[in-house]
Design goal:
The chain is of the alpha/beta class. The strands form three sheets. Strands 3-2-1-4-5-6 form a six-stranded parallel sheet, sandwiched between helices. The protein has two domains: 264 residues, Crotonobetainyl-coa:carnitine coa-transferase, domain 1 (Rossmann fold, 3-Layer(aba) Sandwich), CATH 3.40.50; 71 residues, no CATH class. The longest helix is centred in the middle third of the chain and has 24 residues. The chain is built from 16 helices and eleven strands. Helix 1 packs across helix 7 and helix 7 packs across helix 8.
Length: 390
């Protein structure tokens, strides 16, 4: 395992109240960058992600979902209903740089950990909050969740074709995007502290992150009343072959339709459909013709021919194929570590690569309350009974 001494956030201490996906993805990356992340968890079960998708061990608290989001952190299990636990949090905040949470609006305030309360303890604190919809407004107190954000932000409604049923995107697109925005917010606020000596409150929401992801589409709609949809482009699509499927992007060339026809060995349709407007109007016909031809040969055959005329294309692959790909290995996107319960484990590594430092695994994902005594002693706090190691 690597050490934090050469990492940019070495010496930065984070009190982390986050759980599930959005917040933990952010604090894990900050931990990868060298921060000391102290994960505050409920002694009765801890982070909800510990119990996701069934049990992985006899207690069901260290499953792959949890482990994928919580390396380079220490776990401190506290019953926040107890005054003694609240006092522990206040002491941690006095000696820390960042507090991060992803509760509904008002929860941190009810716990006694609102921004003004913690700022009074430590004026330099960066108080970062991730939520579903933001701290105020008509949706502020609604529960935020990835699938709901897909629906509420308009992302779920956007499809390549109106005939395609509305469906849930199966990867946590909103959580991860908002989590990375939360990382950016914390890093920018820490730079601000270094310049002014004052902390601040930063807010990120699933809702805002998904609106921001649609910046091209939204700006066109706001200014022209029209909506662009890159998946609707007439020469772009997914086509089945004899052994799988490929995706083709028919763009960025003077006459991509002519090149596609040449690859497929059919007559040049660009004479009949010479511009984008006529191609859009006849998309169904064009794609039916493409579909018939692509079905006659293999992925390898078509990709070789398409790349031969510099048309953008790729095979549509299973995740298992991606994880076993040489490029994935070259990019060092799979990391290995020793888990105290399960032994050797593999997970996805930090996707940001630095030439002068290693953002590897310094700490395995923690067991619930694993670092209670260590953390409290480090902060000079007497170890109470309810805060002993789990």
């Amino acid at each position: 395992m690597s050490t934090s001494s050469d990492l940019p956030l070495d010496g930065i201490r984070i009190v982390d109240f986050t759980q599930v996906m959005m917040g933990p993805s952010a604090t894990q990356m900050l931990g990868d960058f060298g921060a000391d992340v102290i994960k505050i968890e409920n002694p009765k079960g801890g982070d909800l992600a510990r119990g996701s998708f069934g049990k992985f061990d006899e207690k069901g608290l260290n499953n792959p979902v949890f482990c994928s989001l919580n390396r380079n952190k220490r776990s401190l299990a506290l019953d926040l209903r107890q005054d003694s636990s609240k006092e522990i949090v206040y002491e941690l905040v006095k000696q820390s740089d960042v507090v991060i949470s992803n509760f509904r609006a008002g929860v941190m305030e009810r716990l006694g950990f609102g921004y003004e309360a913690l700022r009074a303890i430590n004026p330099k604190i960066v108080y970062a909050s991730g939520s579903g919809y933001g701290p105020s407004g008509p949706y502020a107190h609604k529960g935020g969740q990835d699938v709901l954000a897909q629906a509420m932000s308009g992302v779920m409604m956007r499809r390549a074709d109106p005939s395609i049923p509305i469906s849930i995107y199966p990867t946590t697109l909103c959580d991860y995007t908002a989590g990375m925005h939360l990382v950016q917010a914390v890093l920018a606020a820490l730079i601000g502290v270094s310049r002014t000596g004052e902390g601040q409150c930063v807010e990120v929401s699933l809702y805002d992150s998904m609106i921001a992801m649609q910046l091209q589409e939204a700006t066109c709609h706001l200014n022209t009343g029209t909506e662009i949809n890159w998946a609707e482009m007439p020469l772009t699509g997914v086509f089945e072959t004899t052994d799988g499927a490929i995706v083709l992007v028919g763009a960025f060339k003077p006459n991509p339709l002519q090149d596609i026809c040449s690859v497929l060995g059919i007559e040049d349709l660009s004479a009949d459909y010479p511009d984008l407007d006529t191609q859009k109007a006849n998309k169904a016909h064009l794609q039916d013709r493409f579909r018939t031809e692509f079905a006659k040969n293999s992925n390898e055959h078509w990709i070789s021919r398409l790349e031969g005329v510099d048309l953008l294309c790729a095979p549509v692959r299973e995740l298992a194929d991606v994880l076993d790909d040489e490029q994935t290995a070259v990019n060092q996107m799979i990391t290995e570590f020793e888990h105290p319960v399960h032994g050797p484990m593999r997970a996805i590594a930090c996707p940001i690569h630095f030439s002068a430092m290693d953002c590897g695994v310094r700490r395995a994902p923690p067991r619930l309350g694993e670092h209670n005594a260590e953390i409290l002693q480090e902060f000079g706090i007497e170890v109470p009974a309810q805060a002993s190691n789990q």
